[in-house]
Amino acid sequence: MQIGYKLAAEAFGPAELVRQAVLAEQAGFDFVEISDHYHPWLDNQGHSPFAWTVLGSIAAKTSRIGLATGVTCPTVRYHPAIVAQAAATLALLSDGRFVLGVGSGERLNEHVVGVGFPDAVSTRHEMLREALEIIRLLWSGGYRSYDGKHLRLEDARVFDLPEEPPLIAVAASGAASTRIAAELGDGLFATEDRPEIVRQYREAGGDGPCYAEVPMAWAPDERTAAKAALDTSRWAVTGWKVMSELPNPVNFDAATSTVREEDILEKFACGTDPARYVEVARQFVDAGFDRLVMQNAGPDPDGFIDFYQRKLAGRIAGLKPGGDRS
To answer: What range(s) does the Luciferase-like domain occupy (predicted)?
Structure first.
């Protein structure tokens, strides 16, 4: 079991994200994971810096903690050749501490370059397959070309390659995407605590680590925490089918107008009761995930990191599937 800290790039500026990563390393987290967005989910989150620049600064200012994207779409806003080069460079700068999390993307971030975002999920999956094949091809060295149904590569070479390529964790929510994770990735990434996601990944031959984001919101009292999560993170209760389709923050604002504090309290661990945090984390462990990302939607990141270090670290890291629920 490894425990990560989510760097919410939609909620904080670049310098603050670097500061939180340094603090997370000091607090004993195993890795940090950063969202790779062009837009925030909601306008009132107010931020969305370039994730790769932030990760480079974190690599320079830390020495132990792992780094991961959660997740990058390597098909529309970025060509996979650029992702291959960026990930290789970051792996070198971090001395092998980087994990490349990839997924089929959200319209929210990909439509901005004006070339269209596929409506069909099957097309997005085809593009992701081709992107992963291109990344693997470039990481094998030499000049490479590729002529796919959706993506092309012409006489490209990544000159600076690490001795060992970064692990690739592929975001999945159903059978088709778990097959891609098993066949072309080194691990699985998910945002829901559904056991069938991990089961389908294993049945497809996947044997790598399984990453999942655990929804939390720390504040001195439960209602303050729930209100903060409602204000900035209510999009998280909509589910992937909604999250992947809406084009702009204003659409997420409209789509989540009926979300209540009670809905947040049902999904998130809120407040200061360690037992509730362990309960929510246990759902992901029981579902088969062994890389848990603490995703704090509360208003005080320093308070959450301190709370985690004092009250949660040992209890969550020690969770076992189907373990004692007392």
So the answer is: 8-290
Residue type, 114: G
List pLDDT tens digits, range 282-304: 999 999 999 999 999 999 999 99
Give domain status of residue 326, yes or no. no
Task: Spell out the residues 6+ positions from residue 325 whose beta carbon is closer than 8 angstroms to its own.
Answer: 282
Q: Is the pLDDT of residue 54 over 80?
A: yes
> Of 237, 314, 325, whose CA–CA distance to 286 is shortest?
325
Q: What is the mean pLDDT of the chain?
A: 97
Q: Of 106, 110, 126, 130, which residue is the catalytic one?
A: 106
136 found inside a domain: yes
Assigned token pair, 144:
């490479």
Half-sphere exposure of 300 (CA within 13 A, CB side): 16
pLDDT 10s digits, 216-252: 999 999 999 999 999 999 999 998 788 999 999 999 9
Write the DSSP string, 36-95.
Answer: --SS-SSGGG-----HHHHHHHHHHH-SS-EEEES-B-TTTTS-HHHHHHHHHHHHHHTT
Q: Single out the residue of 171, 234, 223, 199 nearest to residue 321, CA to CA.
A: 199
324 Cβ contact partners less than 8 Å away, ≥ 6 residues apart: none
Q: Residues 10, 33, 37, 111: which is the catalytic one?
A: 37
Q: Which of 235, 195, 236 is nearest to 214 (CA)?
A: 236
> Is 106 considered catalytic here?
yes
Asked whether residue 324 is domain-assigned, the answer is no
Residue 244 belongs to domain with CATH number: 3.20.20.30
Q: How far is CA 302 from CA 27, 129, 204, 314, 326, in A?
A: 10, 39, 40, 19, 29
Cα distance between residue 196 and residue 233, in whole Å = 25
Buried b (16+ CB within 10 A) or exposed e, 231-242: ebbbbbbbebee
Examine the residue annotation and report whether 37 is marked as an active-site residue of this protein. Answer: yes
Hey, what's the torsion of the CAs at 5, 277, 213, 55, to 10 degrees? -10
Residue 323 lies in a domain: no
CA 114 to chain CA mean position, Å: 24
Instruction: For residue range 256-278, list pLDDT tens digits in order.
Output: 999 999 999 999 999 999 999 99
